[in-house]
Amino acid sequence: MAEDDFNLDEEFPLGDGTAEDSADVACPYCGETVSIAVDPGSGSFQQYVEDCEVCCNPWQVSVRFSEGTVRVEVARLNA
Ligand SMILES: [Zn+2]
What residues make up the domain containing 52? Predict the structure, then answer.
């Protein structure tokens, strides 16, 4: 194993102003993968309701920004 070749310093460059502004999520109703826009300027943690553009069912969306990456979770509303 050549683990020393794995340069962690270069894997996640920070501070270049390229925070993610979209994310792919799997719809909890129809299972389709949908790319949704997210807004890093609206806070490090956001929750809102958005309709699936494929099946039009409502998602409870949770968005969390951390160190230049975005983590998005969707769940059935009122599930
Ligand atoms: Zn759907």
Answer: 43-79
Q: Convert the pLDDT of each residue in 3-19 to its tens digit.
A: 566 555 555 545 544 55
Residues 6+ positions from 2 with CB-CB distance below 8 Å? none
Distance CA 48, CA 12 (A): 28
CA of 4 to the centre of ligand 1 (A): 43
User: Distance from the CA of 24 to the center of ligand 1, in angstroms?
Assistant: 13
Residue 66 falls inside a structural domain: yes
Q: What is the pTM of this model?
A: 0.72
